[in-house]
Each structure stands twice: as C-alpha cells, then as structure tokens.
C-alpha cells in the first residue's frame, strides 16, 4: 500500500495466513513482531460511544444495541439487530429483521456490491457468510477505505451467501474464536458427525435433539440432514426463519414443524438453545441431545451445556480463518471487537498493527 506506517516484513510469495502461526513454513514466511511504539494513529473519524460504534461523518450507528435514529445492522441475530428509526441493511437481512422485530421499522435496503453515496463517502455492503443476509460494510473516502466485518465466516455454507473479502486500509473485525486452539474440523467431518449422531440415536431407539440457533445454524442443519435423507422436525422459531429463507429463494430442505401431540421421536428434532422447555419425546423414547457450536472445542463443554454430545458446527471464523481474512484484506490497521482481546498479541507477533477496541476509545481509521 506504500504507506510508511505499514510495518509488514517481506512475505514469501504464495504463502497463506496459516504459514504465519504454525507449521514448518513459519520460519521462512514470518513477519517482524510489531512493537507497541510503532502503532499507527491518524485522523479520528470513528468513535465508540455508549457501547456502540458510530460514524460521525455519516451520522450512522453500527450494530448498536440501543435504539438509534439511523443504524446499520449487519445481520438478524439479536446481539446485533435492534429496532431503530431507520435500519440500514442488506435485502435479506431486512427480510429477517421484519420477521423478528415486534413493530414496524423503516428499512434502507441495499443489494450486495451496489455502492451508494453519502456526502463525500461511498458505502458498499458485501456478504459475510455468517447467516442469510449477513453483510460487511465498506466505507470509502478521500483518505482511505474502512471495512467492518460484523460476524463472518469463510467456510462453505448451504444456506447463506458466499463470503467475500475486500482490500482495505483499516479493518474492524470480530475475533470470537481468536485463540489458536479454535481450529474447526473440516466441514465434511462436521456434517458426518451430525448425520452419525442422528443415525445412531434413531438406531438406539432415542429421539435425537440438536440444539442450534433458530437463525442460521438451524437452517444449515436442516440442509445437512436433508441431504442425508434423514427426516427432520423443527421448533416453531426455526420454521419461522426457514420461511424467510424460502422467501429469499433458499430452500433448506423438507421438514415438519414440531407438534407435541404428533411427534413420535422418530425424526431428528432441531431446537433453539433458548427454547424455554425441552420437548418430551413420545412413545417412551428418551432424548439424546447434541449442541451445535464452535465452543464444542472447549474441554468439558458437554457437561457445561448439559448435553450428550458437542459438535463444532459454527457460523463464525475459526483462528486460521481470522488470519486468512487479514492476509487477503491486507489492511494497514486492524481493530478487533466481539472476541478475546488477547488475539491482539497474536497479530502483533505476526507483524500486524492491531488493537482491541475498548469502550470510550476513539477509533483512528483514516
């Protein structure tokens, strides 16, 4: 990028982000560790106030948990989506939010990779690969380009738009799984484990119950089980979101909606973790439970969640994918949020100018 504050050492051609943290190639493709004294600061344009990211130049809040006059919402999960005066979102995120919000809200919808202008800036939404409609935000101005990732993943998905990575000067990214131990198995292995769990449970006379978030992971699980020709029943909240997917042209596969009077325990049952009551399997069939989450990699996770099995199906990027994203985007500065602050130290050791976004901290972006 030709900037004197871009403190990367030479990187061997063709290397990937994985080379910088593990394996025999690390010695030949390492970056110079980044000293705190070398951190870059420039014109302050963004700020974190009232626990929300704010773009003063655009009078735009980003994923605010408090009601605002105008706010960009990256996706429909409740830890990012709230009812605002005007919600700026992708077309499919707007679909999700309309179904989830309790009252009518004004939406400013934008298709992926169709830029629009606001004052002296150009804004673009592009896919994040997290759940249906999940988007990242690119803001471009005379002084540079900023990307806010929101929640994202780079792995394949059957039910949401394929993720993209854009070059930028400054990157604000989530780092939920920003520790080296979070390396998810290959997607095929995860799918095989889900199918095997259901198949074994049914063979043993048990009702297989899989806990998955009603938006995103549940629809992905329906698609996985449907591809294996396994019968599926879902909680009403999962059905509501699957109908939104269908409206967007994403057919997740056949399923039935749970009915306590008719469910006989011979079908895989997909249930949100927040479901107030676990279903009672019919015909004396005991439940066999599994939690679908990236936290499955934590020791003792099954006991903590109170389930029989943990399966690492995640809609977030794992540690290698976080590094791969940075390598592809090639930012001069990386800001981190929604994760563990110690990911900063991993990045600095790799020669990346990185900081964790703290409350009331000014964000030096451009």
Number of strands: 20
Strand order of the largest sheet: 6-5-4-3-2-1-20
**Outline:** globular
Query: What's the CATH topology label of the largest domain?
Result: Metallo-beta-lactamase, Chain A
Distance from first to last alpha carbon: 14 Å
**CATH level-4 homologous superfamily of the largest domain:** Ribonuclease Z/Hydroxyacylglutathione hydrolase-like
What's the level 1 CATH class of the largest domain? Alpha Beta
Report what the structure shows.
- By secondary structure, this protein is an alpha/beta fold.
- It has 2 domains: 17-182 and 316-364, Metallo-beta-lactamase, Chain A; 187-311, Rossmann fold (3-Layer(aba) Sandwich).
- It has 7 helices and 20 strands.
- It has helices at residues 91-100, 187-203, 217-227, 236-247, 301-305, 319-329, 343-349; strands at residues 44-49, 52-55, 60-62, 70-72, 86-90, 106-110, 116-118, 121-127, 135-141, 144-148, 170-175, 207-211, 232-234, 256-257, 268-271, 287-292, 309-311, 333-339, 354-356, 362-364.
- It has a 7-stranded mixed β-sheet with strand order 6-5-4-3-2-1-20. Strands 7-8-9-10-11-18-19 form a 7-stranded mixed β-sheet, covered by helices on one side.
- β2 and β3 form a beta hairpin.
- α1 (91-100) runs antiparallel to α4.
- The model is unreliable at 1-32, 36-44 and 360-366 (pLDDT under 50).
Question: Which structural traits does this protein have?
Answer:
seven-stranded mixed sheet; single chain; 366 residues; Rossmann fold; Metallo-beta-lactamase, Chain A; 20% helix; alpha/beta; 7 helices; disordered N terminus; disordered C terminus
């Amino acid at each position: 990028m030709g900037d004197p504050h871009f403190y990367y050492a030479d990187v061997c051609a063709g290397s990937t982000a994985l080379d910088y943290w593990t394996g025999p190639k690390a010695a030949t493709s390492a970056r110079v560790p980044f000293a705190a004294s070398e951190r870059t600061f420039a014109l302050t344009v963004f700020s974190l106030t009232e626990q929300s990211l704010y773009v003063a130049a655009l009078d735009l809040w980003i994923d605010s948990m408090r009601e605002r006059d105008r706010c960009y919402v990256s996706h429909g999960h409740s830890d990012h989506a709230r009812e605002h005066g005007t919600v700026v979102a992708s077309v499919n995120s707007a679909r999700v939010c309309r179904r989830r919000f309790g009252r009518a809200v004004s939406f400013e919808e934008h298709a992926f990779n169709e830029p629009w202008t606001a004052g002296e800036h150009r804004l673009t939404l592009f896919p994040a690969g997290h759940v249906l409609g999940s988007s990242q935000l690119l803001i471009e101005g005379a002084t540079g380009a900023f990307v806010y990732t929101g929640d994202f993943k780079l792995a394949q998905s059957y039910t949401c738009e394929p993720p993209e990575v854009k070059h930028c000067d400054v990157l604000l990214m989530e780092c939920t799984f920003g520790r080296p131990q979070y390396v998810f198995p290959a997607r095929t292995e995860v799918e095989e484990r889900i199918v095997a769990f259901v198949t074994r449970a049914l063979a043993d006379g048990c009702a297989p119950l899989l806990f998955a978030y009603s938006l995103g992971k549940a629809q992905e699980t329906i698609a996985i089980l449907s591809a294996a020709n396994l019968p599926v029943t879902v909680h009403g909240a999962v059905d509501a979101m699957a109908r939104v997917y269908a409206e967007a042209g994403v057919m997740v596969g056949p399923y039935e909606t749970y009915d306590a009077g008719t469910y006989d325990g011979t079908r895989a049952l997909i249930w949100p973790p927040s479901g107030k009551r676990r279903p009672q399997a019919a015909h004396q069939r005991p439940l066999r439970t599994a939690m679908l989450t990236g936290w499955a990699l934590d020791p003792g996770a099954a006991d903590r969640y109170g389930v029989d099995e943990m399966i690492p199906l995640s809609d977030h990027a794992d540690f290698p994918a976080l590094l791969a994203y940075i390598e592809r985007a090639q930012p001069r500065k990386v800001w981190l949020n929604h994760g563990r602050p110690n990911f900063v130290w991993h990045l600095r050791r790799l020669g990346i100018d990185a900081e964790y976004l703290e409350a009331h901290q000014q964000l030096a972006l451009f």
